[in-house]
Amino acid sequence: MLFVPLKDAQETQFLKDNDAIINDRARTAANPAFNRPGSPDLLDAVQNLQTSSRSVNAVLVQLAPGFTPEQVAEPIRRWKHLSVYTREGMENILIVKLIANSAKQIGMFLVILAIVSAAIVAFIIYTMTMGKLREIAVLKLIGTRDRTIASMILQQALGLGLIGFAVGKVAATLWAPAFPKFVLLLPGDAATGLVVTLVICALASTLAIRVALKVDPGAAIG
């Protein structure tokens, strides 16, 4: 860490490097007509900027009729030692670099939410089951099978998941357009999300089911 006075930090932050100073001088001194559209020196100024690596990072090429992108890109890539990207290549870079990274971030966020949701559902179902231990003991005392008791707890967890999914889907559908950026939820994604929600709730109910199956029937009359 570097500690400097505020004045020195501000000066360092807004201080231009040598290339920026040279470019500014070139635009204002060497090319005084650059900002005057229609001037005969405008084309020369643009050409000078295009040939200077300090001023231009990319050049957009518009093809004349009768030429293919690869036909023009190959000589430039071979003899000019420059990187050339066609429209398909640029779309691929956009998808791989930008969209794929965003998808990974959203996927990681969804995994974290799934784990937290499973923990919350497990805690709720466990708490509700602990409050009904006496009723579960009575059911066992009258001969109710363990499968029936487990299915009741599972149905409770699935019902909780269905209610949560319905509330989330309605909220996302109604409120998402109000945000400047939102993730579009397609019907296939909604169906997948419903299945994942039910699976998470089913797995979260296993702890409560194990507790319920270990209840002693004698607790009903204890």
Helix and strand layout, with pairings?
Elements: H1 6-14, H2 18-30, H3 42-51, H4 69-79, H5 87-130, H6 133-141, H7 146-175, H8 187-204, H9 206-213
Describe the protein.
This protein is an all-alpha fold. It has nine helices and no strands. The chain has helices spanning 6-14, 18-30, 42-51, 69-79, 87-130, 133-141, 146-175, 187-204, 206-213. Helix 7 packs antiparallel against helix 8 (187-204) and helix 7 (146-175) packs antiparallel against helix 9. The chain is elongated and about 100 Å long. The termini are far apart.
Specify the structural class: mainly alpha
- Output the radius of gyration: 33 Å
Tell me the strand percentage band: under 5%
β-strand number: 0
Low-confidence stretches: 30-47
H-E order: HHHHHHHHH
Could you name the key traits of this structure?
222 residues, mainly alpha, 9 helices
Gist?
This protein has 222 residues and is mostly helical. It has helices spanning 6-14, 18-30, 42-51, 69-79, 87-130, 133-141, 146-175, 187-204, 206-213.
